[in-house]
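Deliverable D5.2: sample structural annotation.
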Amino acid sequence: MAIEEIPIDLSGFEPSPEALRLIKEVDRMIDDFDDAGGRKENPLYVPCDPAFLNAAIAFITKRDLPIGRVFCELGSGFGLGVCLAALHGYEAYGLEIDEKLVDASRMLAQRQNIDATFLSGSYFPEGYSAYGGFAGSELLKPESSWSQSDAFHYCPRYEGMDRDTDEIDIFFVYPWPHEHEMMHELFEELASDGAILIAYYGEGEICVYRKTFDD
């Protein structure tokens, strides 16, 4: 398996009125979070640029790149990315380890009348984890991930999600710099052939990848 980067042009993809209302409310939530000292409790929380993410989802949807319409954000924060995907017609899930952010995400979706599912827990399925080495994080896989013949692929499922990971059509991540390669490997490990990865790298840099079979 391998992943290929898909060239993208995000010009002309402006947020809808519903998306603008959503973004405005999340901006207010983040301000309240900062004023209450939430950044001190959770210094690892950094939001992505919603305009870039909305444009990326709109781009790949308009071009019908995903096989289906299931979206999952790994580390969903306040739930903005998940709610944006839902507004674009996706069955949208968010995985977040901070239970306070999960609660805030559910409240956001309810207030905005958006159908989205937020789950409390790690984006590493059972048996997977990461090891922080000198050169960056490395993915640790369960022994049952592949059979000896590579003929059977073990497809995990996140607890509380009604889909196996190979049924997710779009993954979205905003990884730390030392996690880039590890998140690519996790995507290759969990996703089915043809699945899409949207990766936001900060400062307006967003990339779209597709999982493919090696020739």
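Annotation notes: The first strand starts at residue 2 and ends at 6. The domain at 2-10+46-212 is CATH 3.40.50.150 (Rossmann fold).
The annotation will be released with the project's public dataset once the embargo ends.
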